[in-house]
Amino acid sequence: MVDYRPIPDERDVFHEYRSYAFRPEEGVPAYDPEDHETPRDALGSRRGVYEEGAADDAEPRSVCRHYWLESRVRDDVHRTVGLASVATPPEYRRRGYVRQLLARSLAEYRDRDVRFSVLWPFRYRFYGQYGWDTCTRIVTHECEPGVLSVAADAVDRDAGSFRRLEADEYEALEPAYETYAERYSLALERDEEWWRYRVFAGHEQNPFIYAYERDGRVRGYLVYTMNGIDGDRTMVVSELVAADHDAVLALLSFCYDHESQVQRVRLRVSDDVPIRALAREPDEIETTVEDGPMVRVVDVAETLSALSYPDRDATVTIAVEDSLAEWNDGTFRLAASGGRADCRRLRDRSDTQPEVDIRLDIGALSQLVVGFQSAATLERTGRLEATGASLETISTLFPETTVFLGDQF
Questions:
Q1: For position 219, what pLDDT does the model report?
Q2: How far apart are CA 312 and CA 309, in angstroms?
Q3: Which helix (H) or strand (E) segment is 390 a member of?
Q4: What distance in Å separates the CA atoms of residue 275 and residue 263, rounded to the nearest whole number?
Q5: What is the β-pairing status of strands 264-269 and 232-242?
Q6: Quick one: pLDDT band at residue 353, thresholds 50, 70, 90?
Q7: Domains in the chain, ordered, with CATH?
Q8: Contact 106/325 with Cβ under 8 angstroms?
Q9: Is there a contact between 83 and 105 (Cβ–Cβ < 8 Å)?
Q10: Which of 216, 220, 236, 291 has the least CB density, counted as fewest CB within 10 Å?
Q11: Which residues pair with 227 in a beta bridge?
């Protein structure tokens, strides 16, 4: 058994654990509050697990950070937590401390009525065993800036203009971001601190942020850095937000206008941004697709009861396997009507099972709920078992949607 508690007074220890886990090549880190306790670093809540009954000044066995967020899932905003900085020093590894840390974290999320947990994994298999599963594909396009000249030819340059923004002007970007975020499941609802210290501020260097204005309104913006030196410089776009297609063209044209300054442009976007479709020379674009963050439903009964649904009357019984959260490991009855639903746990999986329509694990259910995978795909890949007409029913209740969570934390 362990104690799970906040670690606000051990920030140097937290910094040491995190540095060893993610940047060991830098050697033993020197903790400096001025460098390592910036407003960006101070976001979120630090947690640790300790030996049961350990003194207040004892070292934690494993640590993590929780970012208390909100995200949009199926047209509604839900409490979401970003799990980050999970780290265990080598002398405490392979003793089950991370598992206990994750289990206790989930219990805290449940107590706080959080619906979804998201994280960026160092290894997908590691977090997959604890019930998180992939929820986003990240597409990266890289090319010479001249390849984007097609956008410059298509856009009306006199229709809009660009200007660089500072953090104090973040509110100017919010309408464009909100229009953009409505298209994506799991897109975060950003508050002032997130804008100031996660979007406008970076770890190594603060990014440039340029807004595209048309008809007196911001219709899109770019967040980017310049990496490298003269002769080998890349414009790295970490966020491209556009309220409409004309804004997409304008933003790509802005990248093209850096042709005399950079040798490459790298764009990190959702897979529905039609960069290759726009290009005259798509073979000159190097495109890679990789898995992004992972998601997990915190409490099956509460989350499925809180979602919005298509307007259809339907009832389905779902058996869920969850080895980390006992309150999810069981059979649930989901009854939907008029766009809402009630989900109730029937019994533990260890008990005699009632008639079950759908069987799946918590990771597959999480993908289904946020819309990243369809029920048909999960069944085809062996992640979901369905009886009778229940596959059609669950497919109707949980249609596939466009999911994109690009925020790093």
A1: 98
A2: 8
A3: helix 390-397
A4: 18
A5: parallel
A6: low
A7: 2-114 (3.40.630.30), 138-291 (3.40.630.30), 299-397 (3.30.1050.10)
A8: yes
A9: yes
A10: 216
A11: 234
Report helix, strand or coil for 268: strand
> What's the rounded Cα separation, in Å, for the pair 399 and 369?
9
Contact present, 299 and 328 (Cβ < 8 Å): yes
Strand order in the sheet with 232-242: 160-164, 208-214, 217-229, 232-242, 264-269, 137-143, 286-291
CA distance 101 to 126: 14
Tokens 């790295």 belong to residue: 236
Distance CA 150, CA 278 (A): 7
The answer to whether residue 250 scores a pLDDT higher than 70 is: yes
Helices marked H in 59-212: 97-111, 124-128, 149-154, 174-181, 192-194
Alpha-carbon distance of 33 to 50, in angstroms, equals 24
Angle, CA 343 vertex, CA 338 and CA 349 arms, to 5° = 150
C-alpha to C-alpha distance for 277 and 104, rounded to whole angstroms: 46
Contact 61, 92 (CB under 8 A): yes
- At residue 154, the pLDDT reads 94
d(CA 274, CA 276): 6
DSSP states along 39-63: HHHH-SEEEEEEETT--TTPPPSEE
* Cα–Cα distance, 151 to 276 (Å, whole number): 11
- DSSP for 294-315, please give it: EEEES-HHHHHHHS---S--EE
Instruction: Summarize pLDDT for 201-218 with one digit per residue, the tens.
Output: 987 789 999 999 999 999
Residue corresponding to tokens 């970003």:
82
Please check whether residue 199 is in contact with residue 183, taking contact to mean a CB–CB distance below 8 angstroms: no
Task: Give the amino acid at 176.
Answer: A
Tokens of 165: 């923004």
Q: Say if residues 84 and 62 touch (Cβ distance below 8 Å).
A: no
Cα–Cα distance for residue pair 53/327, rounded to 1 Å: 26
Under the banding of pLDDT at 50, 70 and 90, the label for residue 315 is very high
Residue pair 5/28 in contact by the 8 Å Cβ criterion: no
Q: How far apart are CA 37 and CA 44, in angstroms?
A: 12
Cβ count near 202 (within 10 Å) = 15
How does DSSP classify residue 185?
A: B
- Identify the three-state secondary structure at position 369: helix
Measured distance CA(271)–CA(292) in Å, rounded: 12
